[in-house]
Design a protein that fits this description.
By secondary structure, this protein is α+β, with helices and mostly antiparallel strands. It contains 5 helices and 4 strands; from the N terminus they run αααβαββαβ. The protein has 2 domains: about 10-50, Arc Repressor Mutant, subunit A (Orthogonal Bundle), CATH 1.10.10.10; about 70-145, Alpha-Beta Plaits (2-Layer Sandwich), CATH 3.30.70. The chain has a 4-stranded antiparallel beta sheet. α2 (about 25-30) packs across α3 (about 35-50). The two termini are about 20 Å apart.
Amino acid sequence: METTEIDEKDRAILRRLQRDGRMSVAALALDVSLSESACRRRIEALERVGIITGYRAELDAQALGYSLTVFVSITLGSQTEKELSGFEAAVRAAPEILECWLMTGEADYLLRVAARDVTDLERIHREVLTRLPGVIRVNTALAMRPVVQPRGLTLR
């Protein structure tokens, strides 16, 4: 998507929604000094042009029994369009893979995976990661603790 022109009111709306996506339109409108209808129109416009791409709940992995966060570097045997497309389709179908990024550098992809424990990680490695099409190298790194959690974009 191309960059869309937004003004300071839009940036204020986006900053607040990044912090609290469940904020009511009434509270948001009050915070950014707009009427509810004007605020709602701006939100809908930001959604329509693809600046706001969705809303979701953030879950605590530890509370749900996922004690390990693992970053996995994947190297493929080749980078043909067929190979990349096949790999990416398989990744999308694997619920254990939380994120996947096409990379530059030594590895072709960087994945983020959550595992319940080392036994679960071994299962994911054996049954999911090594079975992805075209994979010739899998390198896993255990995350010890987050320093900066996912946060919103800085809007200037």
